[in-house]
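User: Hey, quick favor. My workstation is busy. Could you predict this chain's structure for me?
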Amino acid sequence: MTNVITWDQINAFRMERHFLTKRVPRTAIVSVVSSVCGIQAQMLPAAQLQLWARIENLTPQDVTEALWGSKQLLRTWCMRGTAHYIATTQFSAYLKAIIEPRIPRHKEWLTKRGMREFGELAKMDPSHHDFEAILTAVMNALVSGPATRDEVAQKVADEVGPEARPWVDTGYYIVTKLLAYEGKVCFGPDLDGKSSLVLTDQWLSKRPQIKKEIAEDMILNNYLHCYGPAKPQDFSVWSGLKMKTVKPIWERNQKQFAEVMLKEKPLWLLQQDLNALLETPVESRHVRLLPHFDIFLLGHKDKSHIVGEAHYKQVFKKAAWIAPILLCDGRAIGIWKQKRTSKKVVVIVEPFEQLTEFQQNEVETEAQRLGEFFDLTHEVKYTKWS
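Assistant: No problem, here it is.
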């Protein structure tokens, strides 16, 4: 018999799997990143706050140490071609299942369009450049250790010629990204406040190889454990893999799935998680301040269960920009922003609806935690709810 479920059950289950029901100890930072299938890290302050929302008493230094000290976390381009923190022990699996499949489309993009999509650089013609020479020059620039994008670009210009510099010296890391997709380059520690690049083999200890199918199965199962119940299309949107790639992976693992019905439509999760879904308490009233690009908002194709149509464009903005949200029981009930001075962080909340006294108290608690994270006092302000 197929179980019939509700959005309240799904939201409660997913919040628990995202560590948004109860924060975990700061010693669990790596296991959190591993369990939630990576942290979106295009914006480093937002990446830190995604972890803060899930981990008790976290400090910025804890994140720095995990990334650049113990190297238990790695920052590289992963899901959807965007930068993520992933657990270093899982890098081989993500590389085979998620990252390497981006290589053909990126090569095609470089050849056909490339620089012509980037404003003032539009006069650059991809057909006139030797990408292999540029890629080799990037690798040569990193042999001596971490280097910023500017430093790499200058060395590429010195080796290949000044006309090659724009292919490296943009925020899009146009050519360098291909090396990352091949697993040869990743992000290193900040140098004078700027992100650096490193050669992966120099930065990390020797990592085990993993077969592609095993990696795909592992990532899909991890995804469903955190983001389930879901559909194949959700996994496609989350991972950035095309449906023709997702379909055989999904079918190969289907015997391990349990089917549930939501409004007469099927969704799937791991059989081992079915009882947890059915038994998760739904009357929890948990409130969280989630930052820009929080992964809770990036796991599914349809996001209407999180953000209603009336406020959708306030959260999911143009140019793939995602606003910070006030989350209550898996549903966005407002957006927020912060303003910091040397002494105080001010949390400015714009509710979508009239907040209850309980919700306002929870916001106050979250703002206090945020102040502690920055080692600042805190203040909460509200704008008129819309």
